[in-house]
From TrEMBL:
Membrane-spanning residues: 12-29, 49-67, 261-282
Keyword vocabulary terms for this entry: Acyltransferase, Coiled coil, Membrane, Transferase, Transmembrane, Transmembrane helix
Domain Phospholipid/glycerol acyltransferase, chain residue ranges per copy: 118-240
Coiled coil: 301-328
The protein, known as: 1-acyl-sn-glycerol-3-phosphate acyltransferase
Source organism of this protein record: Floridaenema evergladense BLCC-F167
Amino acid sequence: MDYKQDKLNYKFSWFDWFCLWYPPGWLILFNRHWQKYHADPDGWNWLEYILFLIPAGFYLALLIRWLRLGCSFPIQQNREFNPNYQQAFRQEILAPIAKYYFRGELNQVENLPETAPLIVAINHAGMSFPWDFLVLAYLLGEKRNWTVQPLAGISLFEHPWMIWWLPPGWSKVLGGVRAELDDFADAVSHRIILLYAPEGIRGPGKGWFSRYQLETFHPSFISLSDRYQIPISPVVCLGSEFLHPWAINIRKVGKIFGLPFLPISFLMPIFALFPSMGVWAMKTRLSYYIQPVCFPENSANTNHTNAYRRAQELKENMQKQIFELIKKYVKN
């Protein structure tokens, strides 16, 4: 399908608004939009969508779909990033979620560069689907008309739960880059706008009680910034800690299920009844504070020790900004 000709072809109906405000329906939003633009014979159908909305109905829907597919997994397809579909998804699905649910806002926009390429480095929290990433990608796209590609955890691409939840290839088609060093380096070499969390999976996995404490920054983004002479735009996000509040990470159990983290909170019994809520998060205001740009150094002077030191200096500066912003909110 020609995405450009069918721009805004997906009309946000009363049923979509219902799904937006009824948490088990978020998975329906994602899949219905995909099916508007892609042939998806293995995807969810209307009977199964309705089952999402009732307690424990997802399990019956999963069984029905599994039987419908001949007791097998959905067919894996080799799909590539499509910026036109990313734009359609951004305008038709992300826009109402970012504006009316997460109320995303960019602050200190004067620090945001005008042109690409760029590595956007953001603190990462929430212990949930990466909404802090998706909303920032939406806001940057709207502000600068950029095509933003986020570096995403491998589990977002290939974990069996994700393959059943979302269409195979969904993350890649939307621009996700696998969080592996070779894929990271290849993406940076193509001089794109890359959205990156230097804390890695440790960020969302740190849990509620360490929500404002940044984890160690991996130095790879500093080395790649120097190698390809690409500036880094640090962004501090507040509000992501409330995406899944009061959650703690049960690491050992998470490893059994092959999950990067396993959040346990008062919401988990509800998630058990409505597994389609896995892409949902609590309503919060996601506020982004753009910090001054960090320019690359001469790549000839870059080594692991130097890159690590500079990565931790950036972490300390962002940590300072987080604490100052929190104090400001407390006073107000």
